[in-house]
Design goal:
By secondary structure, this protein is an alpha+beta fold. It is built from 8 helices and 14 strands. The protein has helices at about 20-25, 45-55, 65-80, 140, 150-160, 205-210, 225, 255-275; strands at about 5, 10, 30-35, 85-95, 110-115, 125-130, 165-170, 175-180, 180-185, 190-195, 215-220, 230-235, 240-245, 250. Strands 6, 7, 8, 9, 10, 11, 12, 13 and 14 form a 9-stranded mixed sheet that branches. β9 and β10 form a beta hairpin. α6 packs across α8 (about 255-275). The longest helix is centred in the last third of the chain and has 21 residues, at about 255-275. It starts with a strand and ends with a helix.
């Protein structure tokens, strides 16, 4: 794989210099974008989130939008992934520093652009509750940091339980998110998604859903409410909207229909945007 790193082309993909804090301490951020025929259609949402997150965490700012988009397109082309669906990963690492927790005030951040095939979109899943919890007080839950171990362990637990994805509660025992997706529940005829204050990453696809679906509420859900859900869907930038067929073995008969409504809402919103 050919990767882009700070304007240079490298052959070793995700490799960062040995002293980079992104490698040694997980000090950095990442974004994963869907590209279609060489173009990431929702790049603005990801680049805005990357810039906001870098500012909030005191990381060096990423390069300008035009630089990143040009790097993404060129990296896709150099890897013959500029036709059809592909995944673009942006890794913003804090840069080199001496050992220890303190960042070198003169350290320059590094941006790495890598690409690969996109996973299958829209495939239904079975959910299992993980024991790993999301912590609303931790930046690692609210930002897309390189410290992703909670999601890795939760996903591993779900697979061990015979499921396809993990449903993660927060430290207060309320539903938060999947290991790698936002969640939308249909409870008592209402669509609800947990907000970032519950320890949830501000998902880009969830943001599009909230803008497209006026009936979708962003609010806290108790576990009791969530257990009454007749439908749950997952929203993720690469995989789109997916129906959860079951949760901890309980069937969710309305999930496929809810997925259809949300997909239709997104399609209508994009069509209207093209006409403006």
């Amino acid at each position: 794989m050919i990767a882009w790193r700070d304007g240079d082309w490298i052959d070793d993909g995700d490799v960062l210099p040995a002293d980079d804090r992104g490698l040694t301490l997980g000090d950095g951020l990442f974004e994963t974008l869907l590209a279609i025929d060489g173009h990431p259609p929702h790049a603005g949402l990801h680049l805005d989130r990357l810039a906001r997150s870098a500012l909030a965490l005191g990381l060096p700012p990423p390069p300008g939008r035009d630089v990143i988009l040009a790097a993404a397109r060129q990296t896709l082309a150099r890897n013959s992934l500029d036709q059809g669906r592909a995944a673009v990963r942006l890794t913003l690492a804090a840069g080199g520093s001496a050992r220890g927790l303190a960042r070198d005030p003169d350290a320059r951040g590094r941006l790495l652009v890598t690409v690969g095939p996109a996973p299958e979109a829209g495939a239904p899943v079975r959910l299992a509750t993980a024991s790993v919890r999301r912590n609303p007080a931790s930046p690692a839950s609210r930002y897309k940091t390189l410290s992703y171990i909670d999601s890795v362990l939760a996903f591993r637990q779900a697979l061990a339980l015979g499921a396809d994805e993990a449903l993660m509660l927060n430290t207060r025992g309320r539903p938060a998110s999947a290991a790698a997706a936002s969640l939308v529940f249909e409870v008592d005829g209402r669509m609800v998604t947990p907000p970032p204050s519950e320890g949830v990453l501000e998902g880009t696809t969830c943001a599009r859903l909230l803008a497209a679906m006026p009936g979708l509420e962003s609010r806290r859900l108790t576990l009791g409410e969530a257990r009454r859900a007749t439908a749950i869907v997952l929203a993720n930038a690469l995989r789109g909207v997916r129906a959860a067929l079951s949760w901890d073995g309980r069937a969710l008969p309305g999930s496929v229909a809810l997925k259809g409504r949300l997909d239709a809402g997104l399609s209508l919103a994009e069509e209207r945007a093209r006409l403006i």
